[in-house]
Structure formats: C-alpha cells, structure tokens
Amino acid sequence: KSVGAESGLWQHLYQFLNRASSPSLPGPTGHFLLGNMLEMTHDHLPIHLTNLAQRYGDIYRLKCGNTTMVVLSSSEVIKEALVKKWSDFAGRPISYTGDIVSGGGRNISLGDYTEEWRAHRRLVHSALQRCCQQSLHGVIERQAIQLKKALSDYQGRAVDLAEDFTVAASNVITTLAFGREYDKSSSELQQLHSCLNEIKLPNPVFARLLKEVTRRDEIIRQHLSNYKSQDKKNEDAITGALLQGIEKQHNTEHKELLTDVHIHMATVDLLIGGTETTAAWLNWTIAFLLHRPDVQTRVYEEMVTVLEERYPKYSDRHRLPVLCSLISEVLRLRPVAPLAVPHRAIRDSSIAGYFIPKNTVIIPNLFGAHHDPAVWSEPYSFKPERFLEGGGGSTRALVPFGGGARLCLGESVAKMELFLFTAYLLRDFQFLLPDDEASLPDLRGVASVVLKVKSYKVTARARPTATV
Ligand code: HEM
C-alpha cells in the first residue's frame, strides 16, 4: 500500500514539475465563441485555423467557453499526438448532441475511449478486413462500371456529377454492409441520404435533430431485420460477420459487452464515414482536372501504355505512378475531413514540450498540415508532379486519414475506391468544360464536417478506347 501511495506522490510531483516547467501555449487572447466557430464552418474554418497557425505556430490554444482547444497544424505534431502518444489522446469530447446522434456514445466515430468502444472497433475492423479480402475489389469494380454507365447515358450533356458520385460511394457501403445496392432514383436511398445530411449539419435545431435520428434509426433497423430474415443471406456482408462476432462473444468472458445496438451504430458509422467523403473527393478530382487538362492526358496515356486494353486492378497501382500522384495531390490539397474529428486528452500529457491537461480538446488540422510551407513547396498549388519528381513534398507527410487508435476505419476501403473509381473514369472519359464560355470550378470549397467543392457542371466525353 505504501509503495502505491509513494508512487502516487511521485506522479503528482512529476505532473507539477512538468506543468511548472512547461512553457504556456501561444494563442489568440480572449474567448473564441463556439457559436462563432460553428458559423465559421461556412466561412472555411480550416483556412481560418491554418492562418492562425502562421501567426501562432503549429500548436496553439483557443479558448472556447469553458473548453480549451489545442489546434495542431503540422504532420509532426499531429503524429506526435495521434500516433506516438495515441493512448493519451484517443478520447472524444462528450457533447449532448453527439450523445443523441451516436445512440448514447455507442458508435465508433463519436464514442469515447472505453473497453466497450475498443471491443466495438475491433469487431468492426475485423469484419471489414474479412470483407475487404473476400469481396471489396469486385464490389467497387461493379460500382465503377455503373458509374461509367451513368456518365455514358448523359451523352455528353453538361451535368453536375455530385449525386452520381454519392450514389456510387453509398452503394459500395450498402453492398458491403447488407448486400444491397440502390438506384439513383430510389426513394429509400434519397430518404437515407437526406436524414444523414441533416444530422451532420453544425448547429442543428434540437427537435429536428431528434426527428432525423429517429428516421435514420428506423431505416437502418428495417435493413438489419430484412437481412436477418433472409433465407439465403449474402455471406460476404459485414452485417453477417458482425452478428457472428457478437454470437462468439457470448462464449467468452466479455458476455453482453456488445449487442445488436452496436451493429446498428456500426452501420451508421460506415454509411456516414464512407459516403460523403469518397464522393466529395471524386468531385474535387474532376474539378482540379478541369483546371489542369494536361494531367488528365498524362493519367490516360499512362494507363493505356501500361495496361493496353485492360482495365486496372488495385494491384496495378505500383505501375501507375502518375495516377497515384493525382490521388495523393487531391488528398493533400483537399483532405475531405479537414479537421478530422476532435480528440480529447484522456490524461495529462504533452505535445511538442507543452503541457496538455486531461480533457483538453485536440483539433488535428489536417488541412493545415497539408499546406505547411516547411514541408510543401508552393503549398496552395495543384501539382501532382511533386510526388513524382521527389521534390516539394512527400507522401510520408500526408495525414488525410488521421492516425493511431482513431485512424479512419475505412482507410483501406477508401484507398481502393479512390484508385478504381478514378482509373475507370479517366480510362473511358475525357472531362471537359461544357463550353468555351463556362467558368472553371471554384476551388475554394465549402467546409462543413466534409470539405466539398461548390457545385459545377462538366461534360464527360467518351474516349475512342472506351467500352461503355
Ligand atoms: C474517421 C478521413 C473514408 C469510416 C476518419 C477520420 C478522418 C477520415 C480524417 C478521423 C480520424 C481521427 O479522428 O483522427 C477519411 C477520408 C476518406 C474516408 C479522407 C475518403 C477519402 C471512409 C470510408 C469509411 C470511413 C470509406 C467506411 C468504410 C470512418 C470511421 C471513422 C472515420 C468509422 C471513425 C474512426 C474512429 O473514431 O475510431 N476518416 N475517411 N471513412 N472514418 Fe474515414
């Protein structure tokens, strides 16, 4: 007992010395009002936080009501917190609305770091991995072909492709989750997207939020019960692997740690995490390519030279460096989750030598890290070639999926999607401005939780080599 008391004493002394000797964090004086901050999401909050980093450095604090937030804006400090000291910063801030949306903190993205959360994430991670090995490639290829068909049906008309990208990304997830895909015109799909979008809005009206969460839960519940009642179930679907995982757990000491509610919430996690992100990224890619048609030509020429008639497989990626450089550069300039999801310090710790007390909210400013002039030459320019010539930046400094215990759960799904969707589209189509008068897409973006490009129209002209 006395050893325990003594070590407790040492710990207090150590913390005191640590706090006392540590310099205080720089940051703007005065309080940042939460309301202002949320309003700023319309005014590109990531850019605002990145500008503050130019004044205060890659780690600074913001006071927001009673909460102190620490903003990290270089890949070095982000990796120190999220990867090296992952166990100190794996928490999530607890909020009232977050609790409602996440079924009382029982989902993965908003749930706090507890034993239950760890078991939940492990279960979904292994179900996803199993599914990735068995069927992911085929599932994405099928949606890439459907997407090509949708583009071909436009017959060169000027269109906004945002919705087609959303349907493709959403179908990958619904096929993985419960073996179902939807038509663009399906009312069920539109209902699902409309309530997921409403729930994600910053500053939601409370009554509206409750209504949308109820609607969302009804839709998901229906899907899961349909899946369970099928005689011939799709064995590859994640739902099947999750149900088996829960069944297995009944025979271990973790009895009842995870229940059907966790399967329900994991489905919500995958749908929210995996739809708008991938769709927004695809829409950014086409927008950037309209600004740089020469990049589009290089990607196409590389594909037909290396693969000839054949369509790419994910395993071809090492032979297609130009295509990969395009993917990396769009992820760098427009990380679609620009501020990741806020983390919370679950114990006293430090970052870059600054003392960080327990419960501090950490904002990983991925957008800032990707525009850090110490790492990237001409950080605001779209230059995929920077990844080919070995100058002006390196893929090691990219952190679009975060890192550590909270690393994006869908990273491998997303990477395969970005590769196959882009490859299939650029292999068969040339993307052009609708006419000489049309202005190029506005590349500043609209930042909410997901950073999106403002809507624009494009013409997809089939290449002579296309097989659509
Ligand atoms: C979390 C990025 C696609 C599921 C995250 C985070 C980022 C991110 C930055 C937060 C990490 C953190 O808190 O530090 C992206 C990007 C994507 C993408 C850039 C595509 C371009 C996907 C897909 C799925 C997915 C396809 C599902 C299949 C999730 C989930 C979380 C998450 C469940 C929460 C993880 C946790 O809190 O432990 N993602 N994501 N994401 N993502 Fe993704």
Describe what this molecule looks like in 3D.
By secondary structure, the chain is α+β, with helices and mostly antiparallel strands. The protein has a single domain, classed as Orthogonal Bundle (Cytochrome p450), CATH 1.10.630.10. Helices cover 52% and strands 8% of the residues. It contains 15 helices and ten strands. The protein has helices at residues 2-21, 34-40, 45-56, 75-84, 96-101, 115-153, 162-178, 187-200, 206-229, 238-249, 260-291, 293-307, 321-333, 366-369, 411-428; strands at residues 59-64, 67-72, 343-344, 349-351, 354-356, 361-364, 429-432, 446-447, 451-452, 459-462. The strands form four sheets. The protein has a four-stranded mixed β-sheet. Strand 1 and strand 2 form a beta hairpin. The longest helix has 39 residues, at 115-153. The radius of gyration is 23 Å and the shape is globular. The chain starts with a helix and ends in a 6-residue tail after the last strand. The mean pLDDT is 88. Protoporphyrin IX containing FE binds next to helix 11 and helix 15. Residues 82, 108-109, 121, 173, 269-270, 273-274, 277-278, 281, 335-337, 340-341, 364, 400-402, 406, 408-410, 413-414 line the site of protoporphyrin IX containing FE (HEM). Its main location: endoplasmic reticulum. It is an enzyme of class 1 (oxidoreductase). One of its GO terms (cellular component) is endoplasmic reticulum membrane. GO terms for molecular function: heme binding; iron ion binding; steroid 17-alpha-monooxygenase activity; steroid 21-monooxygenase activity; steroid binding. It comes from Menidia menidia (Atlantic silverside).
